[in-house]
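Lab notebook, page 48
Experiment: co-folding of the full assembly
Goal: obtain a model of how the components sit together before planning crosslinking
Operator: M.T.
Materials (sequences as entered):
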Amino acid sequence: MADPTKTPSTPAPPKRASLRERTRAAMRAEVSDVAFRLFAEQGFENTTVEQIAAAAGLSRTTFFRYFGTKEEVVLGRVGEYGRQVADALAARPADESPWYALRRAFDVITEAGPGRPGSPADMVRLLSQACVLMTRHWEKTQGWHSMIAPEVARRLGESAGPVTDMRANALTAAAISCLDAATDAWIATGGTASLSDLADQAMGCLHETGHTPE
Amino acid sequence: MADPTKTPSTPAPPKRASLRERTRAAMRAEVSDVAFRLFAEQGFENTTVEQIAAAAGLSRTTFFRYFGTKEEVVLGRVGEYGRQVADALAARPADESPWYALRRAFDVITEAGPGRPGSPADMVRLLSQACVLMTRHWEKTQGWHSMIAPEVARRLGESAGPVTDMRANALTAAAISCLDAATDAWIATGGTASLSDLADQAMGCLHETGHTPE
DNA sequence: ACCCAAAGTGGAACTAAGTACCAAGTTGGG
DNA sequence: CCCAACTTGGTACTTAGTTCCACTTTGGGT
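Observation: model returned without errors.
Model output:
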């Protein structure tokens, strides 16, 4: 695996947006478009870098100069939407609660109609189908999530159904995320802090009743 | 990438735990131990399948019969802990709130001292270092998370510090998880439902004020 | 208009993950 | 005791990703 930190794509502009850099960005965009067309036609896994390079009119070698990884083509696009969400979040009134502000920032994604080509909605479809994030796919099929979510669904005490399942999935994934955040913070301290306390903190900031049974 | 659904490891026991299956499980465990020793010594990326196979006394080919992927060695171990958490969750009193029950189920991980070899705590350390889940690493360094979390931290209105950062990370990751759950549910409906409503539902079940600014 | 250092390009050769296939060896259990 | 089923290792292949080198292009200053 390539180290994602030393991406060969944009080595931080030393001064301004020089002509060469703009050309480079344009190339990246064009190659990305070509790649996504192929992905949509034959799927992510079934599309080789060679095909993309050929279709875009460059060599395999050069492709890897623009994208360090095949995945990076997809991830780059995802990152764009992330930037939009981040911008939307920053634009929200400062006195809103973080959770509500986040919900409104996500409108950038949720309110985008699936009509326009290349819209976030379409991309979401492609991403889920493409199974790029093999890891997340695994987590949801074989990992903790699938083992825990059913029990959570049962505990929600609602009639079984797609909406209840979704709520259980959200709850489970959020909890796991909190645990992840706690362990990350714990590792950052070199293991000196109390992982248990950190987990309380992380989960508590989402639902104050995290400390009490009911 | 191998399809994680057709894992060559345990093709569903047709009748009982036959002798051959138990032998197989024992082999898997032993190979896994050898692999983790190598991972700990030289890191995940720098350890080749060939090395693991040689150290375990089997051929490369046979290794792939036990583990479809090098990652699966690690993921298998993670899955064991997941099963423990799931069991712990099922054992909690039925009248506890889901969120609290989840918190207590995580005690299996958080309360395990980092002393014993192969303890969850040690494994957590290894996993974060190994960067197996290249995706999650990316998400946290280049992805949405890193773009959104700082803003959330600012909005928490607390003095900057490691704990605030962790709370912001937890909040951000949880919100993204909710959005993921919503889009998954949305895709499951073929795009007929309102993604926006689903997002409200998913985020709302964690913090009731998700629907209101304050 | 000219020039050159820097950047871009493509090809060849390499490592490593993962897959497909085959021929031989082992063994469980009737 | 035996054979069908399972296991094993070897070879050959595809693809992602890296490294190196030689060649071409070009931006931008003189």
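Interpretation: The domain at 21-130 of chain A is CATH 1.10.357.10 (Tetracycline Repressor; domain 2).
Next step: discuss with group before ordering constructs.
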